[in-house]
Amino acid sequence: KAPMDRKMGDKPATTTAPKSSSASKNHADPPPSVVTEPEEDAERYSIGGFLGKGGFAVCYEGTLARNGRVFAMKVVKSQMPQKKMEEKFRTELQIHSKMRHPFIVQFYRAFAFEQSTYVVLELCPNGSVMDMVRKRRCLSLPEVRRFMIQLCAGVKYLHKRFVAHRDLKMGNLFLDRNMNIKIGDFGLAAMILSDKDAKRRNTLCGTPNYIAPEVLDKSKGGHTQKVDIWSLGVICFAMLTGYPPFQSKTQEEIYKKVRNLTYVWPKESENSNFIPDEAKDLVSACLNLVDEERPDPDDIVEHPFFNMYDGCIPRQLDPACRFNKPIWL
Ligand code: ADP
């Protein structure tokens, strides 16, 4: 799995939450088969299959005993090895719990049980856009349009509430049973309310391939919600081509390409996708080194890429398209 991950460039920057030994330990210890909420009229969940593992959490399916509804249960050890990780998790819970939108993973509740915190989330049974691109190599234009439109709606909602996600990448775009995008993993999210807040936001965070130039350059005086628009440009490029635009062997090389805005579109013969100029123009609008000049989600959805003469946007997607290019009827 590792080499492909590197190719897709979805690994976090080395300065952010390293894979902790406790996370792997966590995965090694099987979770309890039943967990209960602490209140008097406590709900019980039976823990099912393993869903995935992140920097510090492990996810399992969890079935609510009362009605059989299935959720994703994110399990995090209450005692974290680093204070910083604990703080991050607290921010994640604080921000994510206030979000409610059709294209954002729904947060239901969080509670402590034995030595762990359990976060009850909407289950996304169809993996992530990253898994899909890995299997398919690249996505068709109608699929890219549909995902971008949904992504813009979710990001618009976040930005209106002064939230910057700061880690938008294909691996954090989960897919529900109807193949709708669900933005997840709020581990790096932050509230940015004012210019003063923006100036304080100068910690290096995110995933190298998706990181905006102003995050790399502390002298630029912090960053704003516009970092997410840069990531949208990277995501759009990667869905169309199968690899992120600033892909390189080392983190330093990636950062150099980001600062110099060095990226090339594949030649038509190398790529199974025909990529229209409208798509290239949209990506280049998002990948603007000057953050204020990047479009807002509302501008993006008005872009000609979404209303080209043959630019259909599918109303439904079959989950089979995780593995095979859909045939449009
Ligand atoms: P971390 O915060 O530690 O990075 P993530 O939130 O990325 O953890 O979750 C780890 C993994 O668990 C994901 O890569 C994915 O495979 C799985 N996962 C997370 N949330 C969901 C969900 N809502 N539905 C299904 N699987 C999920």
Automatic annotation (TrEMBL):
ATP binds at K74. Residues 45-306 form the Protein kinase domain. Residues 1-40 are annotated as: Disordered. It comes from Penicillium subrubescens. Residues 11-25 have a biased composition (Low complexity). This is Protein kinase domain-containing protein.
